[in-house]
Design goal:
single chain; alpha+beta; Aminopeptidase; five-stranded mixed β-sheet; 6 helices
Length: about 160
């Protein structure tokens, strides 16, 4: 049972645990690595996120250990009369602690953050096969409005 959860901005020392959380499912295993020798791209991305005033990585901490994470990015836009929108990505909770409200606490913290910086919309994408995640977001009053598309770019 988890009773005391702290939600805070991630620090560099949290990165190995965040990457392990990102890797801990069938999709993550195919694209993420937890090899300490391969953490440089994650470190560079994390530094870029830290420098971006419109982005943050939040972590949930229980008993001194990171047990969940997400990224929130606030995006200026022209539609909806120029409102800013918050984009939530990479929501993860440690497998053995799912169902204790940690994900809800993370998403609620992201929503508060987005509101505090002037976002009028909050959006996220869920893989079509993640039916449990879809139910979770619907329980938090998110509605499935759009169909997302992705195209990989070479660089």
């Amino acid at each position: 049972m988890v009773t005391d959860i702290e939600i805070r901005s991630a620090v560099r020392a949290d990165l190995p645990v965040i990457v392990a959380l990102l890797r801990d499912d069938e999709f993550g295993r195919a694209r993420e690595t937890i090899d300490p020798e391969d953490l440089e791209p994650y470190s560079a991305a994390f530094l870029e996120i830290q420098r971006d005033l419109n982005s943050d990585v939040l972590v949930a901490v229980a008993d001194g250990a990171v047990v969940g994470c997400l990224q929130i990015t606030c995006i200026p836009g022209l539609s909806y009369q120029g409102v800013r929108r918050g984009l939530i990505e990479d929501v993860r909770v440690a497998r053995h602690l799912r169902g204790y409200g940690i994900g809800k606490r993370l998403v609620t913290a992201a929503e508060r953050h987005a509101q505090s910086v002037g976002c009028a919309l909050l959006e996220l994408f869920v893989h079509q096969e993640r039916t449990e995640a879809q139910s979770f977001y619907e329980s938090l009053a998110f509605e499935g409005h759009h169909r997302g598309y992705r195209k990989s770019l070479t660089f």
